[in-house]
C-alpha cells in the first residue's frame, strides 16, 4: 500500500499519522511532503512498518531522532530527507542502510563530516546534496570512495 500526504501539507500532523497506525496492511511507499509532523509521530508509524521500500519526508521538521528509526529499515531503497533538520549525526545512522540506492539530503545542514559517514554505502547509486554545507573537497572524497555514484550538487 502506498500513502501520499501532500495537499495541503499543513493539515498533516502527528494526529493524521496516528490514523495510519490503524491500517493493518504494511506500506511499501510513504510520501509525506512539507507536513507539520514531529519525530514522535513519525517514529511511532515507522516502528510498525517493516517492509517500506520508499520513504520521502521532504520539508518536514524531522531530526536525527527519526533517522535513527529510519536506519533500522533494511528494505528501504529510496529515501528523501530534503529540507529536514537532519545533521551529520544522522548521516552516521544512514550509513547503516546497506540496501539504500537513492538518497536525497538536499537543503539540510549536512557537511563534509556527515558525508564521510556515507563512503561505504556501495549500493548507493544516486545522492542529492544540493543546498548542503558540503564542499567540493567532500564531494571529491565521496566520489573517489564510490566512483559509480551519481552526485547532484
Structure notes:
- The chain is of the alpha/beta class.
- It has one domain (2-152): Alpha-Beta Horseshoe (Leucine-rich repeat, LRR (right-handed beta-alpha superhelix)).
- It has six helices and seven strands; from the N terminus they run E-H-E-H-E-H-E-H-E-H-E-H-E.
- It has helices spanning 14-20, 39-48, 64-70, 88-94, 112-116, 136-145, and strands at 2-5, 29-32, 54-56, 78-80, 102-104, 126-128, 150-152.
- Strand 6 (126-128), helix 6 (136-145) and strand 7 (150-152) form a beta-alpha-beta unit.
- Helix 1 runs parallel beside helix 2 (39-48), helix 2 runs parallel beside helix 3 (64-70) and helix 3 packs parallel to helix 4 (88-94).
- The longest helix has 10 residues, at 39-48.
Helix and strand arrangement:
Elements lengths: L1 E4 L8 H7 L8 E4 L6 H10 L5 E3 L7 H7 L7 E3 L7 H7 L7 E3 L7 H5 L9 E3 L7 H10 L4 E3 L1
Parallel strand pairs: 1-2, 2-3, 3-4, 4-5, 5-6, 6-7
Helix pairs in contact: 1-2, 2-3, 3-4
CATH topology type:
Leucine-rich repeat, LRR (right-handed beta-alpha superhelix)
Structural class, from secondary structure content? alpha/beta
Helicity level:
25-40%
Strand order of the largest sheet: 1-2-3-4-5-6-7
Outline: globular
What is the C-alpha radius of gyration, as a whole number of Å?
A: 15 Å
Low-confidence stretches: none
Question: What is the residue-averaged pLDDT?
Answer: 91
What is the distance, rounded to the nearest whole angstrom, between the alpha carbons of the first and last residues?
32 Å
Sheet with most strands: 7 strands, parallel
CATH superfamily: Ribonuclease Inhibitor
What is the total tally of β strands? 7
Strand content: 15-25%
- Per CATH, the architecture is Alpha-Beta Horseshoe
- One letter per element, helices H and strands E, the order comes to EHEHEHEHEHEHE
What is the highest CATH level, the class? Alpha Beta
Count of discrete alpha- or pi-helical segments spanning 4 or more residues: 6
Number of folding domains? 1
